[in-house]
Design brief:
With 110 residues, the protein is mainly beta. The chain has 2 helices and 8 strands; from the N terminus they run E-E-E-E-E-E-H-E-E-H. Strands 1-5-6-8-7 form a 5-stranded mixed β-sheet, with helices on one face. Strand 3 and strand 4 form a beta hairpin. It is elongated.
């Protein structure tokens, strides 16, 4: 499949437990660890095209960075499909992405 559009954003988490945090006044607070210095994480949303249809995807952190740098190239995407709670439609949560090696894929089929 090929990423045909991507939208980058970031979210902040606790450096100790990776949980989402709240901004209270000028401080960032984790429910478990109290006042902390947050970690900024990349989130990428967009659409993948597999040659038959396009479908919505989301990815986080290092995988999001790989996808953002592979726009327009055929890659192998691994993940799971879930219902997006906000939009109510299905989206593919990408957990891994790797270069497409067509010869290797042909060998798997033989």
């Amino acid at each position: 499949a090929c990423a045909v559009s991507v939208y980058e954003n970031e979210f902040i988490t606790c450096p100790r437990c990776n949980s989402r945090i709240e901004k209270i006044n000028d401080s960032f607070v984790c429910n478990e660890h109290g006042k902390i210095e947050p970690v900024r994480n990349l989130v990428v949303r967009g659409y993948l095209d597999d040659g038959i249809s396009t479908f919505r995807f989301v990815s986080f952190r290092e995988v999001a960075s790989k996808i953002a740098n592979s726009l327009g190239r055929d890659m192998i995407y691994v993940g799971k499909v879930k219902r997006n709670e906000y939009f109510g439609d299905l989206e593919f949560v990408v957990m891994n992405v790797k270069e497409l090696n067509i010869e290797e894929e042909i060998e798997k089929l033989l």
